[in-house]
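User: Working on a comparison across species. This one is DUF5666 domain-containing protein from Rhodanobacter ginsenosidimutans. Can you predict its structure so I can line it up against the others?
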Amino acid sequence: MKILFAATALFLLPMGAHAACAVKDFAIANFSPAMTSVGSSTRITLRGDLVNHCAEAAAGQIRIDIKDDKGNVLQSKDVWPAGTGNIGPGDKVSFDVGRLFRYKDGMSAFTATITDVRIW
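Assistant: Here's the predicted structure for DUF5666 domain-containing protein from Rhodanobacter ginsenosidimutans:
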């Protein structure tokens, strides 16, 4: 009976409990925010690479914050650059999430941070 209980408990653990990857195992490289005037509108480009330094395939979530010159957050979004796919060990996925944001006067700083890790 003890063996059955132990085996059942292993299957009921959340999948995240088995993950050896953590936020510190991911990095954002080549993050290059830009704003370009196109006619009467302004287009935001937020390109970069999410790199997996973990020993197994996993996915990372990033948060993009757009701030004004006083450091106040004007807009913020959480995104999974690889969608519901995992990034292999040592691999990267490129992203451009600028289309998720709308231009506002006063935008002056763009930050990208890793907020979560998951194995799909």
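For your comparison, note: The mean pLDDT is 88.

User: Helpful, thanks.
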